[in-house]
Amino acid sequence: MKRLRRKLREVKAELIRRKHDPLKCVGAWLASVVRGFTNYFAVPCNMEAPRAFYTQVSRMWLKGIWGRSQKARSRWTWARFLRLQSQWLPRPRLVHPYPAIRFDAKYSR
Fold first, then answer.
1. How far is Cα 37 from Cα 11, in angstroms, rounded to an integer?
2. Over residues 79-83, mean pLDDT
3. Model-level pTM?
């Protein structure tokens, strides 16, 4: 949980810095961040962390979009944002197999 919170703080600070960048650039950057976090932490029995990270990053991104201008809050509804989210952010999925499968080596002796 400490690593999750630390990474969320870093993402939040970077989203504030990139607030007025084009959504395409921010989406591509966030996709790489979510993909990297998922690739590292998506092991069996630990899918809670990548799912929580995905949810929190999505919320922070929408709040960042809402903070771009006074009109952005009314223009960016959750329905519109979910389309943007599905376009850019990859859903977390199990990346590493279970250890019984992963370390099941067959040696001919």
1. 12
2. 95
3. 0.86
